[in-house]
Amino acid sequence: MKKLFSTPLRAVISTICILLILCIIAAIITFIVLKNTLIGKSEACDIALEDAGFTRSDTSRLRTGLDYEDGYFEYEVEFYVDGVEYEYVIQADNGDIIKRDADGKRGGAAPNEVTTTTTPAETTPAKEETTTAAVTTEGAQSGGITEDDAKAIAVADAGVSEADVMFTKSKTDYEDGIQIYEIDFYTSDTEYDYEIAVSDGKIVKKSHETMAGGTPNKGDYIGSDRAEEIALADAGFAAADVKFVKRTELDIDDGRAEYDVEFYVGSTEYDYKIDAVSGAIIEKETDNDFHR
To answer: Would you list the domain boundaries of the chain?
Structure first.
């Protein structure tokens, strides 16, 4: 010990090292103490399910994970009901709902309307935002524009005719605390990506990319139903044996049109990419670690 402080330089270096070690120890202790004051995963899950109007038996692929962001702990809760994906972010210290979203419409009508009323606690200024809206799986916000309105706004801004475009994505999401529609579509040679504010139809963000060689005509595609049949036949299941994770959507990847087919059987998830014109299987993957 005396050797560490035998000279002024060694004394300074040793003091700095000791202080750093103490700071690290204090940080670890603080982290542990804070974590022990959090609500549990099960409680966070129950909060999300109660808000959405479901019980655990109604859901599939229920996942809950603890995250640390902007100095706060939060739980991310995800689950599916009849093909509709629900995503929640729950403040881990008091159970407040920070964010919620629903996407998909397989299985007919939306199972429940999810009413959004977010009032963060006064102790969480970094998360401060207040949103009061009615969100359905169709993406419409009470008092805001509809999904069809958002599509029309995007197409008009792009300067093309809706009859000449193919939509590949149309769903609600949040961007910087603002609820938006994500609208993606393409023409014969250009792909367009739009983010439209649900509240007033304002274009939040837009981009487009010209695709070399263009894309096939809409009439050349096999369709999402046929893509699902191809994936199911390859996996060896009938439609009655599986549950689809989300709507089968058309996507453009490196100028190639393809369908993303995702479904699961028991605890195994199957992901397929099917060529939208030929029906060839481009890629397939299984994941046996489906539940957490």
So the answer is: 9-36, 41-135, 147-210, 218-287
CA distance 168 to 165: 10
CA 244-47-71 angle, to 5 degrees, is 100
| Rounded Cα distance, 46 and 40, in Å | 10
Q: Cβ(251)–Cβ(257) under 8 Å?
A: yes
Q: Looking at the domain 218-287, which fold is it?
A: Nuclear Transport Factor 2; Chain: A, (3.10.450)
Which pTM was predicted? 0.40
Concatenated DSSP letters of 90-154: EETTT--EEEEEEE--TTSS-S--EEEEE---TT-GGG---EEEEE-TT--BTTS--HHHHHHHH
Please state which CATH class domain 41-135 belongs to: alpha beta
How far is the C-alpha of 16 from the C-alpha of 63, rounded, in Å? 43
- In single-letter form, the type of residue at position 165 comes to V
Top CATH class of 147-210 equals alpha beta
The length of the chain, given as a count of residues? 292
The pLDDT tens digits of the residues spanning 196-243 come to: 999 899 999 988 877 655 555 556 788 888 999 999 999 999 988 888
